[in-house]
Amino acid sequence: MTNQNVIVSDRNPILGSKTITVSVSNSPLFSSPPTYFTFPRRKFLELLEAADKNNNNKNNLGAGKISSWVDSMRDSSPTRLRSSSRDSDSDNDEKTSWIVRFPSALNMFDKIMNAAKGKQIVMFLDYDGTLSPIVEDPDKAYITHEMREVVKDVALNFPTAIVTGRSIDKVRAFVKLNEIYYAGSHGMDIEGPTNENSYGESNQGVLFQPAREFVPMIEKVVKILEEKTKCIPGAMVENNKFCLSVHFRRVDEKIWAALAEQVKSVLVDYPKLKLTQGRKVLEIRPTIKWDKGQALNFLLRSLGFEHSENVVPVYIGDDRTDEDAFKVLREKGQGFGILVSKVPKETNASYSLQDPSQVNEFLKRLVDWKRKTVGEE
């Protein structure tokens, strides 16, 4: 039975656009003008499913599968401006409905804190798009000084972890804080705080690396993909140690299909790796059953909260990969997820924030609330 003092989301994700437009061309690079077709979303998904069932080629690179990936890549892009007022009105209605389902965590702050009063809050934070803005060059996704200070304040008041697809070394170089837990490579590389803090923990170092055996394989695939994507302007391959990312933020949308084909073709020879997608990034990970949701559970166990009813895990993230953590919290019926997004998205989160500036404001208010409650005790 769900504890009445714990925040639980019983909201259902909403559907996106009712129609999907796809382009078809004989050339994977779209050198000839493409032909456009518009399908009802349900019909289009049925067509993709049928195409996938009929596609028995070794590399599984049928038109249906690639089209599915391109559509998915397009969905992760910023929403385009609509051309007609009717479409604009429809978008506004959809956003209003979405906000009702997933209200602002700032507007609902008092309700959230009332449910958490007397319990231990544990904070989990994504990095890109949550603590730092999404930028064209992933190597320049710097955190602001103000955000760094508020994350440090949060860590001094609550156990805090950054859970990211990036490597720990890269995120630590951005964040520059020793007081927090780092879960890199989608939680496949977890380290504890490296100096003593208010919880009495010191020099913990590596806590868990379930995909250590895959490191040589990942390094090989990184080199292969770097070579294969040289012909695709704007593509960037990032080695995240236990997984890798192929960023397409700067790739022309017309050649996304070519990029998806190149990436998927590499996996033919590496069946122990799988392809997933994040926000404007294709990601290759080991096939082991491990994700950000598993990392959240591991950290809760490490902190001694696995079976506690007096803990409120709070996970803030903007990416599809964060949905694994949102789903864990929903299934637990304990704590809550906050999706960072300016546009309606299907999600298992309970609440929403629009951008890193609102994340900053939420974290500030959380620290102020903690200091106030301590003062009242």
TrEMBL record:
Its EC number is 3.1.3.12. The keyword Transmembrane helix does not apply. Pathway: Glycan biosynthesis; trehalose biosynthesis. Residues 72-94 are annotated as: Disordered. Gene3D superfamilies: HAD superfamily/HAD-like (3.40.50.1000), Trehalose-6-phosphate phosphatase related protein, domain 2 (3.30.70.1020). Its cofactor is a divalent metal cation. Residues 84-94 have a biased composition (Basic and acidic residues). It catalyses: alpha,alpha-trehalose 6-phosphate + H2O = alpha,alpha-trehalose + phosphate. GO terms for molecular function: trehalose-phosphatase activity. It is an enzyme of class 3 (hydrolase). Pfam families: Trehalose_PPase. Keywords: Hydrolase, Stress response. GO terms for biological process: trehalose biosynthetic process. Belongs to the trehalose phosphatase family. NCBIfam families: HAD-SF-IIB (TIGR01484), T6PP (TIGR00685). Removes the phosphate from trehalose 6-phosphate to produce free trehalose. Trehalose accumulation in plant may improve abiotic stress tolerance. This is Trehalose 6-phosphate phosphatase. It comes from Brassica napus (Rape).
